[in-house]
């Protein structure tokens, strides 16, 4: 069994592939964290508790007979921190009771070990097997918390969530409802997060943990480009290959918070979940509230080990099983070739240029519907613009099929323009507060997905297009965040439920559209990579990584993204030069090399390529087809950091160690440059490998220890190597 309980010591042991998560029920009845690390035996490890002279601490409620140094909850690694027991740290839950107090005393009342993980209601989550269900209850209010822990025998992650339960007779209000808390062993730690902006997503920042609270959050009703719902707490000095790492990734797509707190005594605790800013939730007697899932990873092999743990877990247990081993569509998207200025003839010319290259899907982007010629009109009117596309979509779809390709289409279902038939008929569908002028973003408003009638409109409108046309691929965009969290359909006292209800509404329409069209491949997008999170990956097997397709910037964006999310989830396209976001020129070879470390495609005007460039495109697609399986399921090793080095280099190795793929780029050069050597990690030391492009044969041990000298290339030059085992 992956989950065991020692009744004598009251210790729970949760054993993953090579990790153990352990906590116990202390003599008071609080679940207290003991250990997360490399797999250990089932020793009575309560001796690891950090206790001492703490006479200034409070004892649990009503227990003046106890030694405060031994049992104060202010010092233990709480599995669910709460306020009102002498614990002054950031609580994971705060409930306002009928009397007005905000106190809880959640004690253990029992547990269950379930053979299968229960499905979450209306929210995305990991699938999985054996699950521990821990029941906590406040004896005074009857408020309860059910803590779920799911173990994965082939992955080094633990999935956690909480169901809060009003077991009393009076209504209560949740003022904070996080997904977890977890203590860390005493030590010096750094806090790693992914920050950014549009066109500069998921840059890496590491700062020392200090006394007090370090946090990242979003208040945008979206997981956001500025801060991603993933953090790692690392041992000081951790590298890609060495050091302990604790990863925390929320499977959630709305306003969130993740924080780490260090107490005056140097002890650390991590908490997080739904952002409690502008949040409250009314719970009537008997009602429950389910939190988003947090996926906790551990590695003692540095950041690389943590990343591979997340990649394995998300590819296997989060992404739609239909696409776990399926090759992704190899697309050409018309956006940068035409923007909204196209007609049938232009699209047919682009399709003709794509035919015979190996591209298998032609995607028509924004501008095909309503009065959509600029970005100030048409959103919400999901009806083909027949002035622009004579004969509707049929003509272009038929032509694309004749050329041996599938057809894909762009939508932005959550949005509406003021200049649209939908807004003129239903202005109340847009999110805005009464008697206040709304904010504009990209000339558009966000639709109120908390309302059932709005969701029904979206589902029916999108389904109608998908049902009436042969569409194999959908790009689902989201180009602005919510600025006015208000719904005309909800009572004033319930307005602080808005952000979470928006997420539930989004998941509802995704479920209803995607489940009724299982043959359609859905790609997520949010003004680039603004909503790149586990919640979206549950519905969309890949997400547009960034609107910035520059060959230099993408090396950094994809590097940062890969800390948590697998290569197969990153939509990566080759675009034109000068780059439309940076104005930079990079070789076509380099743009393709960086894009090959993800779901590969093109976003440029193929009709303007020279014959030599068209030949390169065919060669690039052929080369990518040889490594698709590695990108889908291989182990990633980040070798040379583009944030800290003149070079970018990554290596992907097959699970059986028989193949590998190396991609690199020289991001900047210097005079009289010293030759750079890279050591190829992750290979089987006892196998012999042939590097095709170098005509070199060497053992895995030699390639790992002695390494390979990088080729001399100009700035933004690149290389790609294929390694195959020599039998």
Task: Sum this structure up briefly.
With 727 residues, the protein is of the alpha+beta class. The radius of gyration is 27 Å and the shape is globular.
Number of strands: 39
Q: According to CATH, what is the topology of the largest domain?
A: Beta-galactosidase, Chain A, domain 5
Low-confidence stretches: none
Integer tally of domains: 3
Q: How many distinct helices?
A: 13
Task: Give the helix/strand class.
Answer: alpha+beta
CA-to-CA gap between the ends? 38 Å
Helix content: 10-25%
Q: Please state the average pLDDT score.
A: 94
Tell me the Rg in angstroms: 27 Å
Give the C-level CATH assignment of the largest domain. Mainly Beta
What would the principal axes of the Cα set say about the shape?
globular
The CATH architecture of the largest domain would be Distorted Sandwich
Strand count, sense and barrel status of the largest sheet are: 10 strands, antiparallel
The fourth-level CATH homologous superfamily of the largest domain is alpha-galactosidase from lactobacil brevis
The proportion of strand residues reads 25-35%
């Amino acid at each position: 069994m992956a989950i065991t309980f020692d009744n004598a010591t009251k210790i729970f042991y949760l054993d993953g592939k090579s990790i153990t998560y352990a906590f116990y029920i202390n003599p008071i009845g609080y679940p207290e964290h003991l250990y997360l690390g490399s797999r250990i035996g089932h020793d009575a490890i309560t001796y690891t508790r950090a206790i001492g002279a703490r006479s200034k601490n409070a004892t649990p409620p009503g227990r003046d007979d106890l030694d405060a140094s031994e049992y104060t909850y202010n010092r233990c690694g709480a599995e669910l921190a709460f306020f009102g027991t002498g614990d002054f740290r950031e609580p994971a839950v705060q409930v306002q009771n009928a009397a007005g107090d905000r106190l809880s005393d959640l004690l253990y009342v029992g547990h269950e070990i379930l053979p299968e993980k229960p499905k979450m209601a209306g929210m995305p989550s990991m699938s999985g097997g054996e699950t521990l269900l821990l029941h906590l209850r406040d004896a005074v209010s009857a408020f309860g918390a059910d803590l779920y822990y799911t173990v994965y025998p082939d992955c080094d992650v633990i999935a956690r969530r909480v169901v809060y339960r009003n077991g009393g007779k009076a209504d209560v209000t949740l003022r904070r409802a996080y997904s977890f808390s977890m203590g860390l062993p005493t030590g010096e730690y750094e806090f790693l997060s992914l920050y950014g902006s549009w066109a500069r997503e998921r840059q890496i920042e590491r700062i020392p943990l200090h006394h007090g609270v370090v946090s990242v959050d979003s208040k945008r009703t979206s997981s956001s480009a500025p801060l991603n719902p993933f953090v790692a707490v690392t041992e000081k000095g951790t590298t890609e290959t060495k050091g302990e790492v604790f990863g925390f990734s929320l499977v959630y797509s709305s306003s969130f918070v993740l924080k780490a707190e260090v107490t005056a005594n140097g002890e650390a605790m991590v908490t997080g979940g739904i952002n409690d800013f502008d949040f409250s939730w009314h719970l009537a007697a008997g009602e429950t509230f389910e939190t988003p899932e947090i996926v906790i990873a551990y590695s003692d092999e540095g950041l690389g080990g943590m990343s591979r743990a997340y990649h394995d877990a998300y590819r296997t247990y989060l992404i739609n099983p239909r696409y776990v081993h399926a090759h992704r569509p190899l697309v050409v998207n018309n956006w940068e070739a035409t923007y909204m200025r196209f007609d049938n003839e232009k699209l047919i010319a682009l399709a003709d240029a794509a035919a015979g290259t190996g591209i298998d899907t032609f995607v028509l982007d924004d501008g095909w519907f309503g009065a959509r010629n600029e970005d100030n009109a048409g959103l919400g009117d999901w009806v083909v613009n027949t002035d622009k596309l004579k004969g509707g979509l049929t003509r272009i779809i038929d032509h694309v099929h004749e050329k041996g390709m599938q057809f894909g289409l762009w939508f932005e279902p959550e949005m509406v323009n003021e200049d649209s038939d939908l807004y003129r008929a239903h202005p109340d569908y847009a999110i805005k507060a009464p008697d206040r002028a709304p904010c504009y973003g990209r000339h558009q408003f966000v639709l109120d997905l908390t309302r059932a009638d709005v969701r029904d409109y979206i589902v029916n409108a999108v389904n109608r297009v998908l049902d009436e046309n042969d569409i194999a691929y959908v790009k689902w965009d989201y180009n602005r965040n919510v600025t006015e969290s208000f719904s005309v359909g909800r009572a004033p006292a319930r307005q602080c439920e808005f952000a979470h209800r928006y997420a539930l509404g989004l998941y509802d329409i995704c479920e209803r559209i995607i489940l009724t069209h299982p043959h359609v491949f859905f790609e997520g997008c949010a003004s680039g990579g603004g909503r790149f999170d586990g919640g979206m990956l549950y519905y969309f097997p890949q997400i547009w990584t960034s609107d910035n397709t520059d060959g230099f910037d993408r090396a950094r964006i994809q590097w940062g993204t890969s800390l948590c999310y697998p290569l197969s989830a990153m939509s990566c396209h080759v675009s034109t030069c000068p780059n439309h976001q940076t104005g930079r020129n990079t070789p076509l070879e380099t743009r393709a090399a960086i894009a090959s470390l993800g779901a590969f495609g093109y976003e440029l005007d193929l009709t303007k390529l020279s014959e030599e460039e068209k030949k390169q495109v065919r060669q690039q697609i052929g080369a990518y087809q040889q490594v698709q399986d590695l990108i889908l399921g291989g182990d990633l090793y980040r070798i040379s950091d583009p944030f800290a080095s003149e070079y970018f280099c990554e290596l992907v190795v097959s699970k059986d160690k028989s193949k590998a793929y190396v991609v690199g780029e020289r991001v900047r050069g210097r005079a009289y440059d010293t030759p750079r050597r890279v050591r190829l990690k992750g290979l089987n030391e006892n196998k012999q490998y042939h590097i095709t492009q170098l005509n070199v044969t060497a053992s895995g041990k030699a390639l790992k220890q002695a390494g390979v000298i990088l080729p001399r290339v100009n700035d933004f030059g690149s290389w790609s190597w294929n390694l195959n085992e020599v039998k």
